[in-house]
């Protein structure tokens, strides 16, 4: 069950679902203030820049992403870029919340003629744990489980926003030959409600839940994008220090556009990416809080240069890093990959997508046209899984 790309109709539906949630969770005054502040951009700056750069700029002078992006992709990414840099996280959080994402998911399903998901899924809430569990056959044990952590700068995002992406991944895993693939997506506490180490502890709770579903930890794949990938890296470093957990490390780590170093001068804006370095610095500082240090390896895994620690923390079948060549996090990701490859000497494979941006496997599924391109990131990750976890 893999739906078609997002359409302009979907965008309108999303805004319809968003509006009441903003009024409920943010309030009328703040919502109206945000809209009024954004109007000059959407009415004047966006159309002017779009037309000038799209139709009156030589191809060679366009940013790498714009050189191949469709008008729809270009338009959406410009909007996201503005939002990430200018809209407060309090409002951005609502965009990705369950109250907006879940009705939007069902709208997309109904628009494609589905009244229920082909892959059963359920919300899990127990003992401080919150997430989404999905499995092809609920009556049988899984033969592989992906444990996923969503991104969002620790300040926004939810597993419900990723639901379509995650269900598509499980569908492709089933198609690839796994008999009963499953996935657990964690809902962790966002900042400023709580700071480090709360999110790492919640990530450990999620891993323990996955262990309760599959006996062999080598059949677990830990994955995440952006801040979610950071939490997975931190989790593995933490587990490797604990004797009881060290023997239960996963088989594979798939890191999508990881935020390897939370506060770094190398995290700089690029002409193509939608991330904003100043916003990242703010969100990262909020995550670190007042009691932790930006140099702590469990906070910023990319800061860890202890080869033995990384050897202990590395999954038994190694790593797969997948990211965009034009994204803000690319320099720090390359450094971490080089360190793991050359210094730690663990098994690492890399897919750096030329001309693409942050979390492109997720972005492509929603914004690209043909199914081949839309699924390319998911199929790359699935291929690595099939090669490493036979």
Which residues form runs of ≥5 with pLDDT under 50?
Answer: none
- The counted number of beta strands is 8
β-strand percent reads 5-15%
- What is the subunit organization of this protein? single chain
Name of the CATH homologous superfamily of the largest domain: Alpha/Beta hydrolase fold, catalytic domain
Number of helices: 16
How are helices and strands ordered from N to C? Answer: HHHHHHEEEHEHEHHEHHEHEHHH
* Nearest-integer average pLDDT: 96
Distance between the termini: 24 Å
**Radius of gyration of CA atoms, rounded to a whole number:** 20 Å
- Order of strands, main sheet, comes to 1-2-4-3-5-6-7-8
Q: Which outline best applies?
A: globular
Domain count: the total is: 2
Q: What is the second-level CATH architecture of the largest domain?
A: 3-Layer(aba) Sandwich
Helix percent reads 40-55%
